[in-house]
């Protein structure tokens, strides 16, 4: 391709791509043409220069290479490239950013060529890493992940998490293309046009950096890809991911706005657009881009085995975090696509039980939660069922990646351990007290909070079967077994553990506080105050019907959670009863958490059995 | 100090520190002695080798250097050092991790020598950066920030955000001390004992790296500090922050557990503790650590001026995001401690209005939200009132730093712009739809959501006056002016905008949806259905009294928010009414957000005027 005819073909394609970028963004009246124009040659050469192996009729084909626009705002370029590939016709291209169009402001899975939703900067490299990890370690594929990065987003720490973990896993099938167009949204980036600065950083992080002095010179760009791709397969220099670092011009091709600040995220007005077209010159409407066909591949898959039974001695307390690890290890043969990732705390989350049983399906992601979640999104994109674990408190580190995972429609499972003030001496920094709020506020995300090992095991299985995002909250300390081995725990269900026709109140709890609630019910029973107790193990979806019956029959509720009051179990119950409400007392952590023994802290936070009992009595009086 | 008597004094101190670490952690039965032991010489030499200028009787004195334990789990070391400095007596040291003790599991401001709460890894360098920025750029102090880092936490991207921004601001008064003890919680870190790998990364990020081959050799350690501190002030090599990269042994001094995995976060059992004491040898109980006295300093402070009036044409819509920027610029002379930070979107959040008016008090923090929030915590720790802005969606990137800021008792103000589906064409990735849940779940954090420019200006002022964390949510599009220039907006208040004695329902809204609510009230009025309309500009604290009166008087509520239903305005209202509830209908974004025009999207999400009106009617029927 690096001959004259190849170059002139790519040049003609690049010109058409520029036309398309300007046309769709001017038509939309918004979007990021200048950020698109800087990467035209970089992406045209990649896709149509013979480097990118992809069957556009089978976007999900496992043998395809993967392309992720981490700088998702360059969506006009992304769509224009697929237009050139014959997959988006001109009429559709002109629907860019319209309501109902597959061509959203930033790429989403509405378009099947989008590997993952982007638009929050600095996330794409982790997703590409996850896909490269899948190709190299799991499905054993010759495929590559290509990730287009902007220089602004290199300020995001998540990028450097991905840089170090990709090097650690020797992912030479991961290729970053850094579009150094110098300008961010409001001015110059950290290193301006100094591509050597970015190359130095990449190399210090264990990558092979390939500088491109002029990212608009197709010869240089093609040479860089040839260098990058040979490196990946030949002997001497392999084992390192590759970063192509290209100096480019923002707005390239439209002289009036080239390399100018104040043109970020602004389409050309119609008049300027017409002038730009004239200066660009006419594009050959017959030129077409062709993608290289992907290789025939074969993936060795093990057949799923039946799910083994679970067995817990009914009188021996077990921590739900341990049950999580046991469940993963037990379920792995039944779910061949299940993998696990952990943020250097697998001996606390008990993901290590899976790691020991199935080491080839476990990935140590070190203390880098953002990249861990991003990589899991990449793995999910390739059909795996990733279970991601850390302390619940530290999953907040990846809140933005979790938010975006939903828009990628990722089949992602997360487990947060060490929830609540009841973890004890380690203190506030280690206590997950806002995780229910975080995960409840993710559209459709299932939120689970088991109180014993049996329900935890069942819920892990339900998570694996469920298509979509799900979060499991686990507890540090051992808790008594409440359920027999054959009990079912459907998503969206709950369990009524105490019930009589004379119940004067319902206590709703989950996890650690359920045991306090049961003890409170005993205290109240001793005073002849019968109460209902509900195990709300499924916080979202919530069993509104059962809660409504309890509300109607008992007339009052007390909710108890080891979480801040906002966005947690109590508010989930209130929302479920909003149509036909009864008085509800929300017990939750309302004081500054601190170090102490678990029982001391439950008491301090006023969510212990005695506080539950006294609140029930107070409500009745 | 680098003579023989100095060395032997520091060696004797180090031995006492080791004794104290083992004693307090064994006594507590939990904690991280091995992670403490590796940094004993590094920290003893710093604090008592003449490098750390600090008056322990005036922890808040502006002329003090600052020391942050980013590896907060080394709290036994932290407390033992202050024990050696005569600030914690032996009896108190033995309360480590007990309920009520100032010596929590991880350092918190309960102890006045703690600059910021740590324990979630990778956050300390940003805090030190904020304090160094204050010393260099604002208060013009000769003080340094020292930050002790663990090698595990170097995997956190937030550390690399701080690395690049510290270099950008040429903070040679920032000194990192990297304790490369090779072992993380569950095994070897990314680079093991390869201190050259860490040094390479630091240098590529623009830092001066000083390797220390043996971090337990006091001569080497002292030499490193001398080199680090001279560099900071002399000509040639200054302008770069410094990272001391020291190879150390986890558990150093207790042979049985030195450099051993499986000893993370575990105290010595009593028997092993006694054996360890014997092997360590007796410590001289009379040896004392002395801190170097800080310099006399003078801070030039401008006197606050009176707050100028605000003026908006009543008939000209203005975006609340713009009012935010205008308020900052207007209020700056009245609040000399106010500073602003923005994540490379100041032309969208309108923080640029402050930046232009008061450039010396504005800090461009680039697309690195975690470090931005961490640096703001550092600035707040030094008495500044930092206002931090980005898109609401992208503040989620710093959720863990926001969570921890509360435990640092930071006087931190945050503004999230571009809230809600109503931003339009940019699509889901740019839409803040979970920010209310995030900030409501921060203990005591004020959460504000103005609907017009006047209330926004007033609320920014209220935030500046309020001691503690506060969040402001702003809207992309211009909205009509609702209030006169003299209207008051107390925190915890609300405004009743429509009211009659015959109201049959109350619509509660804020921000963009308040305007839809008012339009819905007009539609309903035309059908002779009188409704009350409340502007719930203060979502937390919430005006429960007014909501309860409205509930009692109108018997039903409809809440409307441009946010997911979980953890937002609607649930805040439900919680306020939990004692004496009435039926409430929660309108919120319950569908997958997408690109489109703002009005189309409000309609699609069923939070527009017509949906509000029809829901009111549906509730009444």
TrEMBL record, chains A, B:
It comes from the Bacteria. Pfam families: Transket_pyr, Transketolase_C, Transketolase_N. GO terms for molecular function: metal ion binding; thiamine pyrophosphate binding; transketolase activity. GO terms for cellular component: cytoplasm. Keywords: Calcium, Magnesium, Metal-binding, Thiamine pyrophosphate, Transferase. Residues 318-481 form the Transketolase-like pyrimidine-binding domain. Homodimer. Belongs to the transketolase family. This is Transketolase. It comes from Desulfocurvibacter africanus subsp. africanus str. Walvis Bay.
């Amino acid at each position: 391709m690096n001959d004259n005819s190849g170059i002139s073909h790519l040049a003609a394609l690049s010109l058409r791509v520029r036309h398309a970028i300007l046309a769709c963004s001017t038509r939309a009246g918004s979007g990021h043409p200048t950020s698109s124009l800087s990467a035209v040659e970089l992406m045209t050469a990649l896709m149509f220069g013979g480097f990118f192996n992809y069957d556009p009729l089978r976007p999900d084909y496992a043998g395809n290479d993967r392309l992720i626009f981490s700088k998702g705002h360059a969506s006009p370029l992304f769509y224009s490239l697929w237009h050139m590939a014959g997959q988006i016709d001109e009429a559709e291209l002109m629907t860019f950013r319209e309501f109902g169009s597959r061509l959203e402001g930033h790429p989403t899975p509405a378009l099947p060529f989008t590997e993952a939703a982007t638009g929050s900067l600095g996330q794409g490299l982790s997703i590409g890493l996850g896909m490269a990890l899948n190709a190299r370690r799991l499905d054993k594929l010759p495929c590559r992940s290509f990730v287009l990065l902007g220089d602004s987003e290199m300020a995001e720490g998540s990028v450097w998490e991905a840089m170090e973990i990709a090097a650690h896993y020797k992912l030479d099938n991961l290729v970053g293309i850094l579009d150094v167009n110098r300008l961010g949204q409001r001015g110059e980036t950290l290193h301006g046009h100094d591509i050597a600065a970015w190359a130095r950083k990449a190399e210090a992080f264990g990558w092979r950096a390939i500088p491109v002095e002029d990212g608009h010179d197709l010869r240089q760009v093609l040479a860089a890809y040839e260098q990058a791709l040979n490196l990946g397969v030949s002997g001497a220099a392999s084992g390192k991911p590759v970063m192509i670092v290209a100096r480019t011009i923002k707005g390239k091709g439209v002289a009036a706005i080239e390399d100018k600040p104040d043109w970020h995220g602004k389409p050309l007005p119609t008049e300027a657009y017409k002038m730009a077209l004239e200066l660009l010159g006419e594009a050959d409407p017959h030129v077409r881009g062709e993608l290289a066909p992907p290789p025939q591949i074969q993936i060795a898959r093990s057949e799923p085995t039946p799910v083994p039974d679970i067995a817990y001695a009914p009188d021996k307390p077990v921590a739900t975090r341990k049950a999580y690890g046991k469940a993963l290890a037990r379920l792995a043969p039944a779910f061949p696509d299940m993998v696990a990732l952990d943020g250097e705390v697998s001996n606390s989350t008990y993901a290590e039980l899976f790691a020991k049983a199935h080491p080839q399906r476990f990935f140590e992601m070190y203390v880098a939660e953002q990249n861990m979640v991003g990589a899991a999104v990449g793995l999910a994109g390739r059909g795996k069922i990733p279970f991601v674990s850390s302390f619940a408190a530290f999953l907040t580190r990846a809140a933005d990646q979790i938010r975006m995972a939903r828009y990628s429609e990722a089949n992602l499972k997360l487990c947060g351990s060490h929830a609540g003030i009841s973890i004890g001496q380690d203190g506030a920094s280690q206590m997950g007290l806002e995780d229910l709020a975080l995960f409840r506020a993710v559209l459709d995300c299932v939120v689970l909070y088991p109180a014993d090992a049996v329900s935890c095991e069942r819920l892990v299985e339900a998570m694996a079967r469920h298509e979509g995002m799900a979060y499991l909250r686990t507890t540090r300390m051992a808790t008594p077994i409440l359920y027999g081995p054959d009990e079912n725990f459907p998503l969206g269900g709950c369990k009524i553990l105490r019930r009589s026709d004379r119940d004067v109140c319902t206590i709703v709890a989950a996890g650690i506080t359920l045991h306090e609630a049961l003890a409170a019910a005993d205290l109240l029973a001793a005073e002849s105050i019968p109460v209902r107790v509900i195990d709300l193990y499924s916080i979202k979806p919530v069993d509104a019907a059962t809660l409504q019956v309890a509300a109607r029959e008992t007339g009052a509720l007390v909710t108890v959670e080891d979480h801040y009051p906002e966005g947690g179990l109590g508010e989930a119950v209130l929302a479920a009863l909003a149509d036909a409400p009864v008085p509800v007392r929300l017990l939750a952590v309302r004081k500054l958490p601190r170090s102490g023994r678990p029982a001391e802290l439950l008491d301090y936070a006023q969510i212990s059995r005695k506080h539950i009992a006294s609140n029930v009595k107070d409500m009745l009086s």
